[in-house]
Design goal:
Elements: H1 10-20, H2 32-36, H3 47-55, H4 59-63, H5 67-70, H6 76-80, H7 87-100, H8 107-123, H9 128-139, H10 149-154, H11 168-181
The structure holds iron/sulfur cluster (SF4) (2 copies).
One iron/sulfur cluster binds next to helix 2 and helix 3.
Amino acid sequence: MSSSPKAFDTEFIAEVQRESEQNLALCYQCGNCTAGCPVSFAYDYPVNQIMRLVQTGRKQEALSSHAIWLCASCETCTTRCPNDIDVARVMDVLRHMARRENIVSEKAVGAFWKAFLESVEKHGRVFELGLMANYVGKTGRMFTDVDLAPMALRKGKLGLKAHDIKKLAEIRGIFDRYREQK
Ligand code: SF4
Ligand code: SF4
């Protein structure tokens, strides 16, 4: 973790505000979000400090943090914020920005994200076996949770064939619009 002072990057602040549609200036560092975060113990910066990094325009530190990738998107922070800031959405925006800038600190999580989104774009939903194969291909992590596969197969939780949804074109349109906005 670097503590060297960084320039106050106002463009970065404005970009996070615009993409998350949240007023970051409302955060007064009460720490409620951090107190409720179930994975804060594993973070390099607790979630209120991530908010502070964004408020003070410290782009490099915010985007290269491990916290934004370890976030479980559970939204506890959002429900606990007294100022109605959708903190989970801010974390989500930071992950997308980090991905675009190619500074993903948790490579395996980043690879899972990419495989997940590719599966949704391809089928309109997640095809679990395809997702797993894609993830293994990207990371070489062959045996992650492989012990759960037989039970998941038995319970019908892992389909052997991909089934595209009916309105697949609409889902692909969402991805296209997202890319056009970047
Ligand atoms: S959404 Fe992320 S940052 Fe917020 S409480 Fe859940 S795990 Fe923590
Ligand atoms: S709960 Fe809201 S106001 Fe409090 S530190 Fe977190 S983001 Fe800021």
